[in-house]
Known about the structure:
The chain is α+β, with helices and mostly antiparallel strands and 268 residues long. The protein is 43% helix and 25% strand.
Amino acid sequence: xxxxxxxxxxxxxxxTTSETLRHYDRIGLVEPSKKDEWTNYRYYTEQDIVRLHxxxxxxxxxxxxQEIKKVLEYDDLERTxxxxxxxxxxxEEKIAALQYSKSxxxxxxAEYERKLNGQHKVHGAFLKEYPERVILLSDTLETPAxxxxxxxxxxxxxxxxxxxxxxxxxxDLAGIYTENGVSRLFAICIRFADxxxxxxxxxxxxxxxxxxxxNREQVLSEVMGLARTEHxxxxxxxxxxxxxxxxxxxxxxxxxxIERENTRRxxx
Length: 268
């Protein structure tokens, strides 16, 4: 004996609304197996619920309802299996894209949480210790933009020959390295092999300042001036680390190298 489910029970089972089920019935997409001729109440079977789950899954793949209706009407099993195999591949691609987007969102979220949990904004220049960092310079990218920041690291992986890619991994950070008047975007290496474009940022003390895109050049000039007048250093390179400040917005931390760590130890 078949078991029947009301509209409300069926809607709950497939995580949708009763009105959605009525709409599916009106357009002939999923009709209930039973209707009460007096009350016009709709009743669904377990097989109907399976069909509804299929519809909901195909909708996630951005298929319009009329196309889903055609698919569900296939009477050729081979054709149906081929279509579902294609839908599976699209689902896997969509999952991969969503996972990548999620990783970007988590990075932004962590930055906002760090600020929310009491990290004060720095006004003016400040000193900061950094360990030795190895960076890989871009051959072509000079400044950040929306199109190159969102999928930033793929640009650097594309720069590496296939036989060396497994030897590289990067932090999810971006920055601008400037030396002798030439600026290039960079990625910070976690693992690396010896290839063209690598630079070593020495460990030690850096004179830093926070800035925006609008005042970046002015702040950079002021920090370099402080390095000369207050620290007696003629900067040979500068680093401008890109700091997320909002969705699709970013600021910078300007960094000017002041003193190597082991030099200070010898002085002591």
